[in-house]
Amino acid sequence: MSVLSEVTASSRHYVDRLFDPDPQKVLQGVIEMKNAVIGNNKQKANLIVLGAVPRLLYLLQQETSSTELRTECAVVLGSLAMGTENNVKSLLDCHIIPALLQGLLSPELKFIEACLRCLRTIFTSPVTPEELLYTDATVIPHLMALLSRSRYTQEYICQIFSHCCKGPDHQTILFNHGAVQNIAHLLTSTSYKVRMQALKCFSVLAFENPQVSMTLVNVLVDGELLPQIFVKMLQRDKPIEMQLTSAKCLTYMCRAGAIRTDDNCIILKTLPSLVRMCSKERLLEERVEGAETLAYLIETDVELQRIASITDHLIAMLADYFKYPSSVSAITDIKRLDHDLKHAHELRQAAFKLYASLGANDEDIRKKIIETENMMDRIVNGLSESSIKVRLSAVRCLHSLSRSVQQLRTSFQDHAVWKPLMKVLQNAPDEVLVVASSTLCNLLLEFSPSKEPILESGAIELLCSLTQSENLALRVNGIWALMNMAFQAEQKIKADILRGLSTEQLFQLLSDSDVNVLMKTLGLLRNLLSTRPHIDQIMSTHGKQIMQAVTLILEGEHNIEVKEQTLCILANIADGTTAKELIMTNDDILQKIKYYMSHSNAKLQLAAMFCISNLIWNEEEGSQERQDKLRDIGIVDILHKLSQSSDPNICDK
Amino acid sequence: MSGQQQQQLPLTAPPQAPGIAASAGPAPASAAALLLHPPPPPPPTTAAPPPPPPSAGPLPALGLPAGSSAPAAFPHGDPALNEQEKELKRRLKRLYPAVDEQETPLPRSWSPKDKFSYIGLSQNNLRVHYKGHGKTPKDAASVRATHPIPAACGIYYFEVKIVSKGRDGYMGIGLSAQGVNMNRLPGWDKHSYGYHGDDGHSFCSSGTGQPYGPTFTTGDVIGCCVNLINNTCFYTKNGHSLGMENSLGLQTPGEVVDANFGQHPFVFDIEDYMREWRTKIQAQIDRFPIGDREGEWQTMIQKMVSSYLVHHGYCATAEAFARSTDQTVLEELASIKNRQRIQKLVLAGRMGEAIETTQQLYPSLLERNPNLLFALKVRQFIEMVNGTDSEVRCLGGHSPKSQDSYPVSPRSFTSPSMSPSHGMNIHSLATSKASNTHFSGFESSCSNGVISNKAHQSYCHNKHQSTSLNVPELNNINVSRSQQVNSYTSSDVDMETDHYSNGVAETSSNGFLNGSSKHDHEMEECDTEMEVDSSQLRRQLCGGSQAAIERMIHFGRELQAMSEQLRRECGKNTTNKKMLKDAFSLLAYSDPWSSPVGNQLDPIQREPVCSVLNSAILETHNLPKQPPLALAMGQASQCLGLMARSGIGSCAFATVEDYLH
C-alpha cells in the first residue's frame, strides 16, 4: 500500500510541474515525464488518473507555447497511447483527436510529425472509432498534402489510412481525394516502412472495390505499372510481410475484376506465393492470412482451384492447421502453448475456408480433401466448436463438399454429419444459418441417405420457419430444402410439409417479390403434386386455392421459366383422376392453355401440350367427353397445325 | 403417364453425375518405359559417394553444327543455332554464376552415349523419342544428360515438354546417378529418382511409388528442381511447384519429349526460388556466431587490418590506425618506411634505383634470390624501353616533373571507381583482374597521403578504409597458388620459381588460359586509355634519346648474359626464358606500346613485381610473406572451391566478393 502511494506521489510530482509558471521548467518537466513513462504502463495509468492529459493537451494547443514544448507534449501523449486500451479510451475522452488534428496545421514539421505519430498510435488501437478521421471533411485533404513533407509523415499517414479505411464509403472518400496518385509513388520510397505502409493502403483501398482496382492497374510509377511493382514485391527474397501484403493487393484487384484470373501475375505469382504462406515455415499469423487470402482468390474460379490443389501439396499442408496446440507444446513450453491456443481457432477456421474454396466446383478435389487424414471428423468437431468463426467456416466447408453425390452417399453418411448440422441450425446467427441451410438442401436430396434421419429430427418445422425469415437467402434455402424434401416423397411427408407450411404461407411465398423464392415454391408444388393418388388427395383439399394461384401467375408479368413451371403444375394436375375436372370445368384455364399452345416459345408450347395430352389420355374414363370439349374450343385445330411444326418435340405429341 | 418432376440443388453447384471414375489403378507393369533424367544429385542419405569425376567423357553437344551428325529434321539454320547457343550461355551464367565450367561443365543436352538403344535423339540432342516395342518392362529405356549437375549450382533446374504422350503415356522425369542401368525404370534402382506421368506417383530408389502429384500428358511442361543445399528435389507442372519430395522416381514408354536445359526461358520461375535461398544462405552467414568473449572479435579484426597496412608499407596509415586502436606494430617504423621507399620506386618505374636501394638496405637478399634479381632486371629493361627507368631518364631530356607525373596517369583508369562491374566474368578471372585495378588505385591514394603531408593523415586514413578491403585480392590469389604449390613441392627453388611465374608473367602455365586471354584484352583497353593520357608526353622509345637507346641495348646484352649464367647455375627455367623473350620482343615493333606484347609496358605490370619484392624482403625479417587478411580471404575462396568439389551446394550463394564493399 505504501509502495503504491509512493509511486503516486512521484507521479504527482510530474503533473505538478506542468503547472509551473516558468515555461522553461514546464518544458523540463515534460521531458522528464517523457523519460519516466516510456515502457512503464503503471506510470502511464497514474499520470492519466492524476489528470495529466488535459493539461498536456492545453499546453499542446496553446499558441504561446514554444514549438519544442508542444512537440514534447505530443510525444508524451503518444507514449501514453502506446499503453493499454484503457489509456487510449481516456485520451479519446479528453478529445485528443481534434486537438492533434488541429496541430497538423502548424508550419513546424517536427511538431506535425509528433502529432501524426500520436494520431497513428491512437487510430491503430481497436478502441478508436475510425469515423473520427472523417468527421471533419478538411482533414483528409490536409493529410494528403502532408504526404509530401517527410518520410515520417508518409509512414504515419499511410498507416492511419490503412487502419481507418473500412468499407466502400471510406474507400470512396480516400479515392476521391487522390489517395491512389498520392500514395503510388511511395511504393518506390527508399524507406522500407513507407513502402510497406503504402502497400497496406492499397490492399485496403482495393478490397471489393472495382473502381479503385480498375484505376490501380493503369497507374504508372517510375515507368512501371502498379501490378508489376506488386509482383516485384512478391519476390521470394522480400520480407514475408511484404510478399503477403502485395499478394493481397493483387488478389483484391483480381476479385474486383481488374485483373483476369488467367493472368500470369495471378497464376504464376500471386497464387503460388499465397500457397507458400500456408507452409509450416511461416508464422501462425501469416499462415492464417495466407490461407484466408488464397480462399478468397480462388473462391469462384475452378481453374485457380485446380492449380492451387496441386501446388506444393496444399491439401495435405492444410491438415497441419488442425494440430495446434500440439501435444508437445502443452508440457514443454507454456509460452508456446499460449501462443498456439491463441491462434488455434484462427488456424482452423482459415483451413476450413480454404478447403471450402478448393472443393467448390471440382469433384476430384473434393475427393482429395475428404481423403485427407481425419477430415470428416475435423469438420464434425468444427461444427460444434464454441467459436462462431470456426463453426461458420466448418459449415461452409461441409456445404462445399456436400455438392458431391458420391460423398453424400458415403462419408457424409458414415460420419452422421447431419446430426451436428441440425444442431448448428438451432438458434444460429443468420450468416451461419444461410450456409447451414444450403448444406441441408443438399443433404435432403432424394438419393442422400441422410434424408430420413433429418426428417425425423424435425427438419420440416425448422425449414418452414425459415421460409418466414426476413432474410431472403434464408427464405430461398428454406423453400428449396422443402422442395428437395418433397421430391418423390411419401404421402405422409407431403402432408406434413403442407401442414407445416400452411396454405397461407404457401400463397405468401407465391407472391414473394423474389423470383428465386417463387420458382422454388412452384417447384415444391410440382413435387407435391406427383403420383396420381397424391394429386387427387391434395387437389381435393387445396384445389381451389391452387387453381387460383396458377391463374394469377399465368396472368401476371413473369418470366418464361416461371410460366413454364406453372404450366407443368397444371399438367400434373391434369394427370390426376378427379383433379382433372378442376381444369375441365375452368374455361378460363382452358383458354390459357390454348393460348400457350400457340405461344412463340417452344418450351411453353411443350408444357401446354403436356396438359392437353394428360387431359385426353385415351385409356381413362371420360376421355371422349374431354376430347369433345377441347375440340369445341378449337384446340384440335391447333394440334393439327402443330403436328406440321418443325420442332420434333412438339410434333411427337 | 406420370407428371414431370424436377429436383434441384441449392446455390451454385449442381452435384456431378455419380460414378466419376476413380483415379486410374497402378500402371501395368508390362508397359515399357522411357526415362529421362539428368545425372546425380548428391546421394540423399547413404554413405557419401566420391565427388563426381572430372568429366573427361562426353563434351557438351551444343557446339554441334547443324547438319553434321544432327538429324535432318532440325529446323533452324546456323545463325539461329548460334543465337540459341548464346542465349543458353547467358542464361546458364546467370543461373549458376558460381559454377566453373572448366572444372564441372553444366548439362546442355541429352547424352548420345549415355542412353539405352531404344532411345532416339534429335534436334541437337534435346528431343528424345522412344523407338522400342514398349511391350514388357524389359523394353524400358532412359537417357541421361551430358554432365553431372555441379554442386556449385546450389539449385539446379531443367524442364521437359511432353510433345507426344505416345501410345500409353507412361513418361517419367527425374534424376539418376551415372552408372545406373539405362534399361530400367528410373526410381527403381539405387540413386535414381523420378516422377511418373501416368499416375503422378514418385519413385525413390524403389519399385513402389508414392502418391506425389497430378498426372501429366501431351502439352504439359514438367520441370525438375534439385536443391543441393538441403538435398531435396521437387517437380513442377506448367510452372507450378508440386511440392518438396526428398527423392523421386518415374517411368514412361514410346513418346517424344523436348528438354530445356536453359535454351529457353523456363516456365517455372526458378530464379525466384533461387533468390529465396540466396537470402537464406546470406542470412545464415550474417548470423554466424562469432567469438564468445567480448571484444575478442574486434581485436582480431583490428590486428588483421593493422598487419595488412604494415605489410604494404602504408606506414602513416598504419601508425594512425595502431594509435586509434591501441595496438603495437611489430615491425620497426624505419623498416616499413624502407620497404615503402622501394615499393614507390618500383611503382614509379624507377627499377634501377629500386634494385640499388634494395641492395643497400638488404645486402644479401638479391644474392640469395637470383631469380628475383633477374625478374627485377627484366622489369628494368622494360622500364628502359618505356623511358621511365632512372638510368635512361637521366640521359633523356625530360624534366623531373614530367617523369614524376608519369605514375599519375594510371590513376585515371585504375581508380577504384573502375573496379566494379566484373560480375559476369568467370569467377577466378574476375578476382585477378579486379585485384589489379584495386591495388593500383589504392597504392596511389596511399602514396599521396604519405608524401604530401602528415597533417592529412586523417583524410588518408579514411580513404584507406574505403578501399583497403578490396586490395588484398591480388595477394589472395598468390596465396592460393603458393598453397597449391606447397602441397606438392619439395624444393624451395621450385616454389620460388613458380611464385615468380605467377607474379611477374601472369599468363604462364597456371591453368587460367581462358582467364588470361581475357585479361590481356582488358589490358589493351587500358592501353588505349593510357595512350590518350600520355599523348602529351610524346611517347618514344627510351624517352627519345639516342644515348638512352644505346644504354638500353647494352643493358639488354647484360641481361642476356645473366640469363645464360643463371641457366648454367640453376638449370633451365622456362619462366625466365619466356620473360626475357617477351621483354626483348618489344624491340621488334616500331611502336612497342601498341604492339601485341605492349601490355608489358603498362604501369599495372609493375605491381606484381613490387609485391614479390616486398614479400621477399619481409621474409628476410621472418615476417609473413602474406598479410593475414589476404591469407584469410584466400582461405575463404579456397574453401568455397572445396565446397563445390565436395558437393556442398550452399557455396553457390556465397562469394568472397559479396563481402568486399
UniProtKB/TrEMBL annotation, chain A:
<keyword id="KW-0963">Cytoplasm</keyword>
<dbReference type="GO" id="GO:0043161">
    <property type="term" value="P:proteasome-mediated ubiquitin-dependent protein catabolic process"/>
</dbReference>
<protein>
    <recommendedName>
        <fullName>Armadillo repeat-containing protein 8</fullName>
    </recommendedName>
</protein>
<feature type="repeat" description="ARM">
    <location>
        <begin position="51"/>
        <end position="87"/>
    </location>
</feature>
<dbReference type="InterPro" id="IPR011989">
    <property type="entry name" value="ARM-like"/>
</dbReference>
<dbReference type="Pfam" id="PF00514">
    <property type="entry name" value="Arm"/>
</dbReference>
<keyword id="KW-0539">Nucleus</keyword>
<dbReference type="GO" id="GO:0005737">
    <property type="term" value="C:cytoplasm"/>
</dbReference>
<dbReference type="InterPro" id="IPR000225">
    <property type="entry name" value="Armadillo"/>
</dbReference>
<keyword id="KW-0677">Repeat</keyword>
<dbReference type="GO" id="GO:0005634">
    <property type="term" value="C:nucleus"/>
</dbReference>
<dbReference type="GO" id="GO:0034657">
    <property type="term" value="C:GID complex"/>
</dbReference>
<dbReference type="InterPro" id="IPR016024">
    <property type="entry name" value="ARM-type_fold"/>
</dbReference>
<dbReference type="InterPro" id="IPR038739">
    <property type="entry name" value="ARMC8/Vid28"/>
</dbReference>
TrEMBL record, chain B:
<dbReference type="InterPro" id="IPR003877">
    <property type="entry name" value="SPRY_dom"/>
</dbReference>
<dbReference type="InterPro" id="IPR001870">
    <property type="entry name" value="B30.2/SPRY"/>
</dbReference>
<comment type="similarity">
    <text>Belongs to the RANBP9/10 family.</text>
</comment>
<protein>
    <submittedName>
        <fullName>RAN binding protein 9</fullName>
    </submittedName>
</protein>
<feature type="compositionally biased region" description="Low complexity">
    <location>
        <begin position="58"/>
        <end position="73"/>
    </location>
</feature>
<dbReference type="InterPro" id="IPR013144">
    <property type="entry name" value="CRA_dom"/>
</dbReference>
<feature type="domain" description="CTLH">
    <location>
        <begin position="335"/>
        <end position="392"/>
    </location>
</feature>
<dbReference type="InterPro" id="IPR013320">
    <property type="entry name" value="ConA-like_dom_sf"/>
</dbReference>
<dbReference type="InterPro" id="IPR024964">
    <property type="entry name" value="CTLH/CRA"/>
</dbReference>
<feature type="compositionally biased region" description="Low complexity">
    <location>
        <begin position="1"/>
        <end position="11"/>
    </location>
</feature>
<feature type="region of interest" description="Disordered">
    <location>
        <begin position="397"/>
        <end position="422"/>
    </location>
</feature>
<dbReference type="Pfam" id="PF00622">
    <property type="entry name" value="SPRY"/>
</dbReference>
<dbReference type="InterPro" id="IPR035782">
    <property type="entry name" value="SPRY_RanBP9/10"/>
</dbReference>
<dbReference type="InterPro" id="IPR050618">
    <property type="entry name" value="Ubq-SigPath_Reg"/>
</dbReference>
<dbReference type="Pfam" id="PF08513">
    <property type="entry name" value="LisH"/>
</dbReference>
<dbReference type="InterPro" id="IPR006595">
    <property type="entry name" value="CTLH_C"/>
</dbReference>
<feature type="region of interest" description="Disordered">
    <location>
        <begin position="1"/>
        <end position="79"/>
    </location>
</feature>
<dbReference type="InterPro" id="IPR043136">
    <property type="entry name" value="B30.2/SPRY_sf"/>
</dbReference>
<feature type="compositionally biased region" description="Low complexity">
    <location>
        <begin position="18"/>
        <end position="36"/>
    </location>
</feature>
<dbReference type="InterPro" id="IPR006594">
    <property type="entry name" value="LisH"/>
</dbReference>
<dbReference type="Pfam" id="PF10607">
    <property type="entry name" value="CTLH"/>
</dbReference>
<feature type="domain" description="B30.2/SPRY">
    <location>
        <begin position="88"/>
        <end position="290"/>
    </location>
</feature>
